[in-house]
Amino acid sequence: QVQLVESGGGLVQAGGSLRLSCAASGGTFSSYVMGWFRQAPGKEREFVAAISRSGGSTRYADSVKGRFTISRDNAKNTVYLQMNSLQPEDTAVYYCAADWKDWGATSLSYKYDYWGQGTQVTVSS
User: Fold this and answer.
1) Pairing label, strands 58-60, 68-73
2) At a CB cut-off of 8 Å and minimum separation 6, what does 63 contact?
3) Alpha-carbon torsion 85, 90, 92, 94, what sign?
4) 103 DSSP 8-state letter
């Protein structure tokens, strides 16, 4: 069983930056594809970014490409999401997730087995 704990959310003005972290415990971190998803009020959860087990492959939603960067430190059992040029439409609860079955970065939420509790990101205009 893997436990995931997100941190780093908060309130930021449009154009600002935040870095989210997700610390994993209870499993072999390097054996998991890691992903970030988000859910805004009244909307369905959507894919943001994913990174392969080794970190050599990443995938992004079109809406965040060029602004967000996903990375991981397998020695620290942590995945990060650097978010730059934040916009009000980025406001959401951000969740990290772990997938033990795949090797490559996947955007499909049903493939992820473990989820964190989420961290709120609010971008003011």
Assistant:
1) unpaired
2) 89
3) negative
4) S
Q: Which of 114, 102, 93 is nearest to 48 (CA)?
A: 93
| Residue 52 tokens, joined | 């392969």
> Residue-wise pLDDT tens for the chain (125 aa)?
899 999 999 999 999 999 999 999 998 999 999 999 999 999 999 999 999 999 999 999 999 999 999 999 999 999 999 999 999 999 999 999 999 998 889 999 999 999 999 999 999 99
Q: Which of 77, 83, 66 is nearest to 9 (CA)?
A: 83
CA distances (Å), origin 122, targets 8, 56, 75, 89, 93: 12, 30, 30, 9, 8
Query: How confident is the model at residue 103, as a pLDDT?
Result: 86
Residue that has been written with the tokens 């998991």 in this structure? 32
Place of tokens 């087990």: 53
